[in-house]
Amino acid sequence: xxxxxxxxxxxxxxxxxxxxxxxxxxxxxxxxxxxxxxxxxxxxxxxxxxxxxxxxxxxxxxxxxxxxxxxxxxxxxxxxxxxxxxxxxxxxxxxxxxxxxxxxxxxxxxxxxxxxxxxxxxxxxxxxxxxxxxxxxxxxxxxxxxxxxxxxxxxxxxxxxxxxxxxxxxxxxxxxxxxxxxxxxxxxxxxxxxxxxxxxxxxxxxxxxxxxxxxxxxxxxxxxxxxxxxxxxxxxxxxxxxxxxxxxxxxxxxxxxxxxxxxxxxxxxxxxxxxxxxxxxxxx
Length: 284
Known about the structure:
6 helices; coiled coil
């Protein structure tokens, strides 16, 4: 009877489920172990996460200024080393950016200077300034040449006076004193004439020319002719330089005249004493 009950119990639906549950409970640990092994094997073959490398800045040509990429302003940095590398790359990019800006500024400056030079050449101001400089140099050379010729004339007169009347020593001394005095008088007259000419030139033609140029400049500015105003400004500068040269020459001429007057007074005093000695005779 018991065997029949057991056999009939096996074929009942509830009994079959309980038997399967018991069998599954026995198989469950083995399946869990297999899953763990599979997971471990899969983890071995999973590649490691890629390291973070910031993108390198793309530097364009010197004609255009490079812009910084957007990734530099809000990057995702995994660790401290990558953050430091990122900062270094950012500073390098900023440095290249500033160098490109500096090169652009220098290029614009050179272009502006070239344009100014071309404008001056087109206006003919450079040739005009060179012309005025050449004229002033020629005038100065003529004055120096005239002074040299006058000195040669004086030296020839002195030599001619020294060769005359060598018979008497006293007469030679008197003649030398007289010739020196004559030379000093001639030089004194020349210096006086030079001072007069320079004074008249400074107070007359040079000053008048400056006044006329100032009037022309004001008229050009009033008529908005700025190119003419610029040219007249250069002429005014050159005229002022010429006036300064004349004033310097006038100061030198006045100093020479003062020294010449002192020499004349000394020679005159010596001649007076000598004449008195000759008239009085030696004291016994």
